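Protocol step 4 of 5: obtain the predicted structure for the target chain.
Materials: sequence only (see below). No template structures provided, no constraints applied. The aim of this step is simply to have a reference model before the mutagenesis design in step 5. Sequence pasted as it appears in the construct record:
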Amino acid sequence: MAFEKINIEEIVAEKRKDPAFDKEYRKIEQEYRLIDRIVDERKKREITQEKLAALTGISQQAISRLEREKHIPKLDTLMRLLDGLGLELTIVAK
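Step 4 output (structure tokens):
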């Protein structure tokens, strides 16, 4: 059985023409971009998931799920992670 090759970027681009889909897509995209930035900063600072767990009181397993983008954390969890990494959240206009 042959598989049909698909281009996910083309599918997403087509779906994003729908305003409701695009709005949700942008929301999720921002959430994942923030998570990616937290992971990058943790690695740059050479802090293990275990050490970050100890600094924040968030379990290593929860940090792992977050980093694998299996879970979108609540704001208070994000703030604890940022604090544990010595970072702060800044809001700027688009």
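Step 4 remarks: The mean pLDDT is 91. The first helix runs from residue 8 to 15.
Proceed to step 5.
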